[in-house]
């Protein structure tokens, strides 16, 4: 008999470049490792607020390092994160609440679109430097991800409903309950217990923990 699959939940926000790196690596491993990957759109602002965390960019030395780190990571992970000049102003000045609610609405209705839709938001924000808080950009993302205009319209209408707002809030609170203080927060349900792994650079450790082989960030 085949081994039981390990449920791996990925709590993420598209404002976070490290979430994108972690997302792509887990997407690559979802058919290599014996896991069920579950995407959990959460709101990073809410996690930060609840845990008293601050964006790493608030510390100038760390901000300086972060720019180099993201460039190196993007190359090593083969994910097209492009750092713009005013990257920190963009992160602090963009609310991803609308985008994360849009992803929450798709999670509630057509979860099979969650992977391509999330990826498009990251590409738009991190490769093309577009303002994803703007409604027209949300529409463009949906189009790129292959959503019909009828479905997109339905999702746009859902964004402002209590059901979607509450669902995103609940997912965010769930991440906090598991111990998250930022994103990506990866929770592996192993031997009846949830185990938190924080950041895109702990997936090697996650593999080892659940008894899976790590083949680098880009397994061929």
TrEMBL record:
Reactions catalysed according to its record: RX + glutathione = an S-substituted glutathione + a halide anion + H(+)
EC number: 2.5.1.18
Active site: 16 (nucleophile)
Class of this enzyme: transferase
GO terms, molecular function: glutathione peroxidase activity; glutathione transferase activity
Keyword tags: Transferase
Keyword Transferase set for record: yes
Organism domain of life: Eukaryota
Domain DSBA-like thioredoxin: 8-209
Transferase is among the record's keywords: yes
Any GO BP: glutathione metabolic process
Pfam families: DSBA (PF01323)
Alphabetical list of InterPro entries matching this protein: DSBA-like_thioredoxin_dom, GST_Kappa/NadH, GSTK, HCCAis_GSTk, Thioredoxin-like_sf
SUPFAM superfamilies the UniProt entry points to: Thioredoxin-like
Any one Gene Ontology cellular component term annotated for this protein: peroxisome
Assigned protein family: Belongs to the GST superfamily. Kappa family.
Listed name of the protein: Glutathione S-transferase kappa 1
Biological source species: Ciccaba nigrolineata
């Amino acid at each position: 008999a085949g081994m039981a699959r390990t449920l791996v939940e990925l709590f993420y926000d598209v404002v976070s470049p490290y979430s994108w790196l972690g997302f792509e690596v887990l997407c690559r491993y979802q058919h290599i490792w014996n896991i069920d990957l579950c995407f959990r759109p959460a709101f990073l602002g809410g996690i930060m607020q609840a845990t008293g965390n601050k964006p790493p960019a608030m510390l100038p030395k760390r901000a300086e390092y972060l720019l180099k780190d993201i460039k190196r990571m993007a190359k090593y992970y083969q994910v097209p994160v492009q750092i713009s000049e005013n990257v920190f102003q963009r992160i602090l000045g963009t609310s991803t609440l609308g985008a994360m609610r849009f992803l929450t609405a798709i999670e509630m209705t057509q979860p099979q679109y969650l992977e391509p839709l999330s990826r498009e938001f990251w590409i738009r924000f991190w490769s093309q430097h577009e303002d994803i808080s703007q409604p027209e950009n949300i529409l463009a993302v949906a189009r790129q991800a292959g959503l019909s205009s009828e479905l997109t319209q339905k999702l746009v209408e859902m964004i402002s409903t209590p059901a979607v707002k509450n669902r995103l809030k609940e997912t965010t609170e769930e991440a906090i309950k598991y111990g998250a203080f930022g994103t990506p927060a990866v929770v592996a349900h192993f031997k009846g217990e949830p185990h938190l792994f924080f950041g895109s650079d702990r997936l090697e450790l996650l593999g080892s923990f659940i008894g899976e082989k790590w083949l680098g960030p880009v397994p061929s």
